[in-house]
Design a protein that fits this description.
Layout: E1 2-3, E2 10-16, E3 19-24, E4 27-32, H1 46-49, E5 52-56, E6 62-65, E7 73-77, E8 80-84, H2 99-111, E9 117-121, H3 127-134, E10 138-143, H4 146-158, E11 166-170, H5 173-183, E12 189-192, E13 197-199, E14 205-207, H6 208-219, E15 229-234, H7 241-256, E16 259-268, E17 275-285
Helix pairs in contact: 2-3
């Protein structure tokens, strides 16, 4: 498991009974997590004193209760700063387990000793975008949600990267890739974090198990003649890291060579010292 354990402003304090107890800066949250299938005693008093708890509704969805939070606040990871803003579907605008991936590709970018162009697909609020830009890459940030792209711009500005070479695109990722192929554009690094399920702007249905194979094959056409890395993330339960690795090896190894690794992403639970699985990644490295 790749564990993001270098955080100072984030802490996974405990996990039990389908919930996480977390510290985000100076605020504590309780949020549901279906991976937490054990039932340990909730000894930490913060379980009862959290600043907000997200409670699911039996009719679907959910809401924040006992909410003593500001509308938003900022936290840091090394030189990066992010705006945290609890949303109506339990998210906060950041996935802290991704920090281990930020460290991995940032190191590759810094060691490359050449200009690196990175494409970040399904880029959300830009955690990977600002990490890559901070490491010295020029980045193309693509997401279909206008609000998420606006949040990414805010995070870049907070990190001192308002004037960094970041191109923000609000568009369906597949359509953008097809246009980039026609234009003859290429990238040295590609990051993608596709959803489990979604609908395109004209009603196209995306199911990751059915769509990801063709999508990776299409996206691979945008890699440059000297690619540096390829990163595929998934939060889809039942889609294993090994299956994603197999798929990436099929589409990338014959053309580019390189080396792939796949594993779960995780966060360390401070109460137990154990790693909580939070998703999976495939890391493809083409040159050291």
């Amino acid at each position: 498991m790749w564990i993001s354990d270098a955080w100072k402003d984030y802490e996974l304090i405990d996990a039990s009974d389908g919930e996480r107890l977390e510290r985000w800066g100076k605020y504590t949250l309780v949020r549901p997590d279906p991976q937490v299938i054990w039932h340990t005693d909730k000894k930490n008093p913060l379980w009862q004193k959290a600043d907000a708890s997200y409670r699911r509704s039996r009719s679907g969805g959910g809401a924040w209760s006992e909410n003593r939070l500001p509308e938003s606040w900022n936290i840091s990871y090394d030189a990066l700063r992010f705006r945290i803003k609890p949303m109506g579907f339990k998210h906060t605008g950041l996935f802290p387990e991704q920090a281990t991936n930020w460290d991995w590709f940032s190191n590759l970018i810094r060691k490359a000793n050449r200009p690196i162009k990175v494409l970040n697909l399904f880029a959300y609020t830009g955690g990977a975008t600002v990490a890559a830009a901070q490491a010295g890459a020029s980045v193309c940030h693509v997401d279909a949600a206008k609000g998420m792209v606006a949040a990414a711009k805010e995070n870049a500005a907070l990190s001192g990267l308002a004037d960094a070479p970041i191109r923000y695109i609000v568009e369906d990722c597949k359509k953008f890739i097809e246009r980039e192929i026609r234009r003859g554009n290429h990238y040295d690094g590609i990051i993608m974090d596709p959803p489990s399920y979604g609908r395109g702007p004209t009603g196209e249905v995306w199911k990751i198990e059915e769509s990801i194979d063709a999508f990776v094959a299409l996206t691979a056409k945008l890699l440059s003649t000297r690619p540096l890395f390829f990163l595929l993330n998934s939060y889809t339960t039942g889609l294993s890291a090994s299956a994603m690795k197999y798929l990436c090896d099929l589409h990338l190894a014959p053309r580019f060579g390189g080396r792939s690794e796949a594993d779960e992403l995780g966060l360390r639970v401070q109460q137990s010292g154990l790693g909580l699985p939070c998703g999976s990644s495939v890391r493809y490295t083409f040159e050291e």
